[in-house]
Every structure is written in C-alpha cells, then in structure tokens.
C-alpha cells in the first residue's frame, strides 16, 4: 500500500506549512529538525551538480577575450558576450551563496532560515544560469552562422529550458497535488 500523499499546497506553497510537517512526522517518522537537515542535504547535493556546470561555463567565458578572434566580434556580439559573462558570474555567486551562509550561520541554530534562503538562492541561480547559457548559445550561433541563426538558436534554448525547468516541474507538481 502506498503511503498517504502529503496535503495539497495549492493555496500556500510555503515549505514549512504545518500540514507538510505533520505528514513528514506521520509518514517518515521525522522530526522538524531531521526534516530540515534532510532538506539541507538534498539542496547541497543539487547545488553540487549546478555549481560544477556554472563554474565551467564561467571559466570558459573568462578566457574568450584572450582568444585571437575576439577583436573580430561586432559590437552586438560583444554586448551578448558581456551579458553572458555577467549572468554566469551572478549565477556562480547565487549558487555558491548557500555554502557561505552555512559557514556564517554554523552552530547558530538557523537551519530553517538557511534552508529557506538556500532554496531561494538555488532557484534564482538556476534561472540565471539558464539565461547565461541562452546568451552563450546566441553568441556561438551568431558568430558561426549569423545573427538570425543566433536568435533562433537562443529562442530554441530558452524554450527547452522553460519546458524542462518550469513547465514540466509545474505539471508534475500539479499532478502530485
């Protein structure tokens, strides 16, 4: 027999909703502290995946101006490059911020605040990373095939990210509720 499903959160998506905590206690036999520790560990595992990608992207972008063809870029391509590197650096900061928060809040019994803040940083950081990748796709296709190809490729990349990172999770969430 399947365990009971957690209560619907359509009216209030807050992660610390009392009904959700009650469900965790009943089904997982988990205290509030254990739940927060599990949520924090889950978040850290997810961030490890994202941090590797964003750090590689940022490192790659930091080398671009030192390539021999960089001076050949037109103004519009340089602007796209600067947008891409800026977004990538912001995403790096956002995705690493929860680790620094943990160090600064260590032994301060602030796990609830840490998990909630880490969740926000992760979501905004991933969205920023997606936009950085879209800008990089635009730049690469623009340089290789032209402006129209860059715009089309960037639109396709944006559509893919929106479908995988927004639409699909919302559909699954709605079905789970």
Automatic annotation (TrEMBL):
Residue stretches spanning the membrane: 79-101, 121-141, 147-168
Classification lineage: Bacteria, Bacillati, Actinomycetota, Actinomycetes, Pseudonocardiales
Protein name: DUF6328 family protein
Signal peptide: none
InterPro entries: DUF6328, MFS_trans_sf
Keyword match Cell inner membrane: no
Keywords linked to the UniProt accession: Membrane, Transmembrane, Transmembrane helix
Residue ranges of the region described as Disordered: 1-30
């Amino acid at each position: 027999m399947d365990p009971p499903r957690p209560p619907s959160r359509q009216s209030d998506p807050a992660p610390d909703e009392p009904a959700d905590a009650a469900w965790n206690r009943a089904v997982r036999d988990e205290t509030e502290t254990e739940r927060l520790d599990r949520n924090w560990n889950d978040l850290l595992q997810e961030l490890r995946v994202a941090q590797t990608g964003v750090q590689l992207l940022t490192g790659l972008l930091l080398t671009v101006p030192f390539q021999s063809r960089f001076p050949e870029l037109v103004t519009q391509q340089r602007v796209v490059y600067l947008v891409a590197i800026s977004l990538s650096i912001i995403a790096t900061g956002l995705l690493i911020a929860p680790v620094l928060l943990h160090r600064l809040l260590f032994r301060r019994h602030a796990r609830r605040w840490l998990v909630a803040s880490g969740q926000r940083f992760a979501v905004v950081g991933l969205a920023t990373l997606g936009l950085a990748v879209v800008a990089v796709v635009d730049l690469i296709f623009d340089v290789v095939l032209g402006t129209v190809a860059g715009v089309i490729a960037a639109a396709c990349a944006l559509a893919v990210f929106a479908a995988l990172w927004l639409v699909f999770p919302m559909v699954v969430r709605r079905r789970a509720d």
